[in-house]
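Entry 14. Structure prediction run on the chain below.
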Amino acid sequence: MMTKIGCCIFSVALVLSLSVAGCGDDDGQPATETLCSDTEDNDGDGLTDCDDPDCVDATECQGPVCGDNVIDDGEDCDGDELGEATCQSAGYDDGTLTCSEFCGLDLSDCFDFETCGDDQAGGDEECDGDDFDGQTCSDFGFSGGSLTCDEFCTVDDSGCFDSLDTCTTVGSTSIPMAGTLTCATETGTSIEWDWYHVAVIAGDCVYIFADNGVGAADLLALAVDPDGETSYGLTDDYSQLDDERDCSTDTWAGFECPEASVVAESDGDMVIMIGQWAGDGTTPGMDTCNDGMSEYTLYVAVNGTDATPILDSDDTAMM
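Output returned:
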C-alpha cells in the first residue's frame, strides 16, 4: 500500500512537473511572443504581434523614425525626402519647400508672386513703379542719384552716382559769372538749372561757390566729373552742395549758399550746375519763389586759380 501510495504520489508529482514544463520554452523559461508579424498568439497570452509587450523591441513594431530620409506613416516628409510635395502643391506660386526637424513641411520659403505694375513693391519684387521699399541709391553703394524701376520690377541704378572726393584749395572769387534762375516748377517735379563746364585734368581741385543777389534765391549746385558717372551734390536730397556759406542776401527761408572744392577724377569738361529751391527752401515746387526769377553769381577756380566757366544751357530741367 505504501508503495502504491508512494507510487501514486510520485506519479502525480511527475505529471505536475511535466505540465509546468509544457507551459514554457524547451529550456524551462516562460513562453514569449517570438514572431511579431504572423498574426498568431505564439505564447498563449491572448495578445498577438505588436500588441504583445514581448514585441516592444521588434523592428517591425517600431514607430516612424524622423531623420532617416524615409517618409513613414504619420510623416509629411523626412530630411531631403519631400515625396511629391512642392510649394505649388501647398498652394503657393513658387519658392523652396523644406522639411522641419519634426518631419513636417516647412513653408516659410514659399511665396506668392506679386503683381508687377501695381505700384506696390512686395514678395520677390525689388521695386514697383515709384515704390522702392525705402531703398535709395545709397543702398546700392552710391552717394546719390535716382533709382528707376524696370518693367520686371527690378531696380535700375544707372541713374545713381558715386561721390567726388573733396579738397581744400579755394579761389579768390575774382572772376564772377552772373546769371538768373527760374523758380522750380509748382508741381515739384523739376528744378530749372543753368549748366556750365570748365576744363580739368584728373587730380585738379575745383572750387565752386554760388552767391545770390536780387530775388534772394536759395541756391543749390551740382558738379559732375568728365566721366559722367561721378558727382558731388547729387544726393537724394541735394544736401551735399547746399548751405555751406553765407549768401550776400539772406534767403527767404534763412538758408545759405553752396560752396565746395572737389577733386576731378578724369580729364575733360567738369559740368557745374546751378539751381534754386522753391519758396520753402526744402522741396522743389512747394511754393513760388520771389517774382519767378532770381539773380546769382557763380565763382569757379581750378587749383587755386580763378577760372571762367562756359555756359552751355540756361534754365534746363534735369529731373
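The first strand starts at residue 94 and ends at 95.
Filed with the rest of this week's runs.
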